[in-house]
Amino acid sequence: xxxxxxxxxxxxxxxxxxxxxxxxxxxxxxxxxxxxxxxxxxxxxxxxxxxxxxxxxxxxxxxxxxxxxxxxxxxxxxxxxxxxxxxxxxxxxxxxxxxxxxxxxxxxxxxxxxxxxxxxxxxxxxxxxxxxxxxxxxxxxxxxxxxxxxxxxxxxxxxxxxxxxxxxxxxxxxxxxxxxxxxxxxxxxxxxxxxxxxxxxxxxxxxxxxxxxxxxxxxxxxxxxxxxxxxxxxxxxxxxxxxxxxxxxxxxxxxxxxxxxxxxxxxxxxxxxxxxxxxxxxxxxxxxxxxxxxxxxxxxxxxxxxxxxxxxxxxxxxxxxxxxxxxxxxxxxxxxxxxxxxxxxxxxxxxxxxxxxxxxxxxxxxxxxxxxxxxxxxxxxxxxxxxxxxxxxxxxxxxxxxxxxxxxxxxxxxxxxxxxxxxxxxxxxxxxxxxxxxxxxxxxxxxxxxxxxxxxxxxxxxxxxxxxxxxxxxxxxxxxxxxxxx
Length: 486
Prior knowledge:
Layout: H1 3-19, E1 36-52, E2 64-69, E3 76-83, E4 112-119, E5 121-124, E6 130-136, E7 165-170, H2 179-184, E8 189-194, E9 199-200, E10 206-207, H3 210-220, H4 228-234, E11 239-246, E12 249-252, E13 255-272, E14 277-293, E15 299-305, H5 309-313, E16 319-323, E17 327-332, H6 335-339, E18 346-357, E19 375-380, H7 384-389, E20 400-405, E21 410-413, H8 417-425, E22 434-446, E23 452-459, E24 464-468, E25 475-485
């Protein structure tokens, strides 16, 4: 072998060592007498099984609403949500003297008020009728509370007894609109829930509608609209929106606000054909005031799954991933086997591939199919809770993400050597070699140098189903080692 080749290999080895913690080497392999780098690989097997996800950490910027039948299991999956709203020091209310609408209490009020929820992503039948019920919250949701998908705000006392409550029927394709109007919206759809029923505040004051309450509170206490905390504490803690009827579709809410339509008189200049000149006329116009739901304000998902998932979890011919809050895959990694016989080697990489299988249950109960998960996270089972609660990111040491490859019909973790090394250091602990594979949603951003980096990882709360090779069929795992020979 030429000297230049040996030098290049040595430099490559040193680069690999520089990228690893020095404690990640097996023995003191690198010395000042190195002249040949030897690279070897070995194959092992890992085993997997499906585990039930009792609940998942569910703080999310984009809640899901609706109810669908899982086409593989016939299980009902229901999405409910708690929502809070952001306000501004000036939400857009016009002067009381300019408002034309007066209610039975003599107050100048909005002509109509709506809770408007917008979405572009949905699953299921766009014509399936469903029913939502909106409940007023009794108190704000503490930011410090760790909300999981099985959190029931009614059982936990967050819904105000005797508070505002309104029901609304909807379809994704709003059949009350003409075809031309409906098609003009493109991919954006909306659920518009009227909030025009009478409202009684906690202090006993009666209002003709929820919008009348919000407008009157602003007039009497503009300081309550100065910031989010004041608004949540003194005006509106939020809503709990629950799916109470129908099934067939689930939507991902991307934006929402409470829209209060105000009617006012305005002077406008119009052309008078009789006078052959432009004249000023008083005409009525409508304008909106609103408080909005934004990602900066706490939103949480409340998910329920049917008991039929237990039958799927018991299938040992494979392993499953199902979201939201459904099924995970647990993998037992051959940690000691990977280290055995390599006491003086460095572990350069450990590769794990998860081939996908076609569902053997698909379309059993529905004409629709669930998509595969886009991203997966692997990490020690013992670290899953803290990872999501603390908003951690994949670190290349214990937590790794990968995405679905349609060309390979598989997920590949190209190098989880850091995870293997971490597990080996903790081999005296129970369950040290157990990792959990979880479907996740991944957000990215670009640095000033143009590099794309992950800036947020959350539990995937969308509808997905993935069947993986595994269970009674072991998975192949490959380790690559290197050492310098004297």
